[in-house]
Amino acid sequence: MKQFLRGNSIRVALAILFAACSGLWPVFATCETQRVQIDDHSDPQALVQTATQEILDEVRVRAIDPDDIPRIMDIVERDILPYTDIERTTKFVMGRFWRTSTPAQQQEVVEQFKLLLIHTYSGALALLRPDQQIQYPPSRIAPNQADVVVRTVAMDGSRQVEIDYRLYRTRQGWRLYDLNVVGVWLVQIYRLQFSEEIQKSGVDGLIKLLRERNEKLADGGS
Under CATH, to which class is 8-218 assigned? Predict the structure, then answer.
């Protein structure tokens, strides 16, 4: 399988994504700043903006050490995953192969894909700088919309990185399931890679490859 998403701009984008998700959790046990409870049923743009600011405020108080993997993983597991819909993301990534997979295969792909995202991008949080600047262009979102895109612009050094977040409304509140960095959607990238592997070695082959990749990342592999 081709290498998964790489590059500093992608990592900065994912760091901002993690920041947006992290603030949605009402109690952040390890945070050294006083958090405001955020209503994840609210306007999605306001939610992303408020939540992002929460985590950036924390970074200003205490920087995230890139070598502090336990803390980073804890943030991802506890404060990000509850407000993302990994199964929905996986369904879109799998495309037509999702419908032809067995329930057991679907469950395993979701779990391995979740682990891949955690392992591959856990270090992205450490890229958030105390002076990180984020702009929030107006998003035209109708009150009755159930699926929305929230647009942001993150400063990556002297460059502006456009990042879009796709969320959908659930009974539990808004949930993130995709992001777009300078015109490239995460779901599209992984769909191509997953499709190539499934056509070559089937869904079980994809699961095997994901397991091997996660084992390598867990052991500190790049």
Answer: alpha beta
